[in-house]
Protein: methylated-DNA--[protein]-cysteine S-methyltransferase
Organism: Vreelandella andesensis
Amino acid sequence: MNDYARIEKAMAYMTANAANQPSLETVAAQVHLSAYHFQRLFCRFAGISPKRFLQALTLERGKQLIASSESLTNTVHALGLSGGSRLYDHFVQLEAVTPGEFKRQGEGVEIAYGVHPTPFGEMLVAMTPRGICRMAFVASVRQEALLAELTKQWPRSTLCHRPDATRYAVKALFTKPAETPASIAAPAALSLHVSGTNFQIAVWRALLTIPEGQLASYSQIAQALGTPKSSRAVGNAVGANPIAMWIPCHRVIQQSGALGGYRWGIKTKQQVQAWEAAQHSPLLASE
């Protein structure tokens, strides 16, 4: 079992047993490590301690968001949509496929792809010369199916297995800027190259404005877009998100505070939310 697989298994165990608050020793035993070595390994690959992750799992974050004293107007303003397209902490540029590109169906385009380990399971990354066009967890969808989707979307393109060219898209998510080696550092502006309807593009841009460690409901996003009755359509657009993590559909929940759906599985959504919360919440213990 490699280190990423150990972290993935440990996170899954803590998610399934959060109500029992398993001890560090108990979780470490699940991946056949001593508590000391497991603590160091988890901090290295997840960027937080196991205790912080477990605490974040037990917080009713959805209810905290919905029951907060801030009005919907303030929430919409916090999304940054009222004053333009402010992106969240990572500088991400989202570019839509042009009509000409759509008509050519990828003719003459080389799409590089690779599969890379993450604390939440292996992730497939694909990118055109203009930016990342697909990121997906392969545990929920087979790699062959994901590549078939790419071929269907870009039937005249050429798929090339080039993990060295796609690795930075994952490294940039899980490595702090000060710790990122120059050899794998992402460009100053990370570009996403997506294909979708005008409404889908608008929803995906809205998701980019939700800060890390915070959540928004489908109805809040609909309100922010100026279409308050389009919550269901927002949900469909969120579900069609082609780029996991970088377009943070995991930060969208139901108005009731329930997690809602997630293309790559509810457990993964819960783990990603807890991981982000543990890194950004001052209410959690530091050890």
The longest strand covers residues 110-116. The beta strands are 92-96, 110-116, 123-128, 131-137, 158-161, 190-194, 216-217, 252-253. Confidence is low (pLDDT under 50) at residues 60-73, 80-90, 178-187.
